[in-house]
Amino acid sequence: xxxxxxxxxxxxxxxxxxxxxxxxxxxxxxxxxxxxxxxxxxxxxxxxxxxxxxxxxxxxxxxxxxxxxxxxxxxxxxxxxxxx
Length: 84
What we know:
The protein is mainly β and 84 residues long. It has one domain. Helices cover 0% and strands 80% of the residues. The protein has strands at 2-17, 20-28, 31-46, 49-58, 63-69, 74-82. A six-stranded antiparallel β-barrel has the order 1-2-3-4-5-6. It is globular and about 40 Å long. The mean pLDDT is 96.
């Protein structure tokens, strides 16, 4: 399985319910990706900043790590794992 570090901002559609965030779809390099499954989620704290990490499977069967910054409300695509 090939692994690539991307580390770039993305546009995200997400559903917020109480304290739970569920990413739904994102735009990266002019292409929309639908999230099929949230595999893992965890929180990292940097002082007052809370970074919510997600490992998700997208419609291309790639597995990506995305990060939500609760202070700036920005999303970042961190890594991509390509099948095969």
